[in-house]
Amino acid sequence: MARIRECNTAGQRKGMASTACFIIVSRNDIPIYEAEVGSALKKEEAAHQHQFILHAALDIVQDLAWTTSAMFLKTVDKFNDLVVSVYVTAVKKIYGHIHCCFIVFILLFSLTNHIIHTRLMLLHDSRNEDGIKSFFQEVHELYIKILLNPLYLPGSRITSSHFDTKVRALARKYL
């Protein structure tokens, strides 16, 4: 057993956050994706505490979104040595029409945050803002690809193992 732990800690990227919990929250405040992406071994109690801290930060995110047009809100809340960072997606509306035998989609989007849609939230103990911002931006791109899937119902849980693998790889790369 000690041998397995040695392999796990030795193979990790130097400087990776030991505690990191990532969650995607829909516009209805429902978690649609959750992952413990830190290097520390997790207990069930800690996972519930992380969810509670992130859920408690939703009100702060709601208030901050009205005061800024930035998508990356950096540090929005702190609990002991843990920090909550948030990335708020822009409001997007997709309109389309059918013309002859093909579909034409026109994408209109607004960068105002008066209506908050999806929030990417990270609870972490690291101080790497640039890495966290890059992590959020790349996960946001992955999330957009999920939204473009015609079989995915927006607001439902993301169960794709491919998405999960990519998110965890990005966490190892940036956090």
TrEMBL record:
<dbReference type="Pfam" id="PF04628">
    <property type="entry name" value="Sedlin_N"/>
</dbReference>
<protein>
    <submittedName>
        <fullName>Sedlin</fullName>
    </submittedName>
</protein>
<dbReference type="GO" id="GO:0006888">
    <property type="term" value="P:endoplasmic reticulum to Golgi vesicle-mediated transport"/>
</dbReference>
<dbReference type="GO" id="GO:0005737">
    <property type="term" value="C:cytoplasm"/>
</dbReference>
<feature type="transmembrane region" description="Helical">
    <location>
        <begin position="94"/>
        <end position="116"/>
    </location>
</feature>
<dbReference type="InterPro" id="IPR011012">
    <property type="entry name" value="Longin-like_dom_sf"/>
</dbReference>
<keyword id="KW-1133">Transmembrane helix</keyword>
<dbReference type="InterPro" id="IPR006722">
    <property type="entry name" value="Sedlin"/>
</dbReference>
<keyword id="KW-0812">Transmembrane</keyword>
<keyword id="KW-0472">Membrane</keyword>
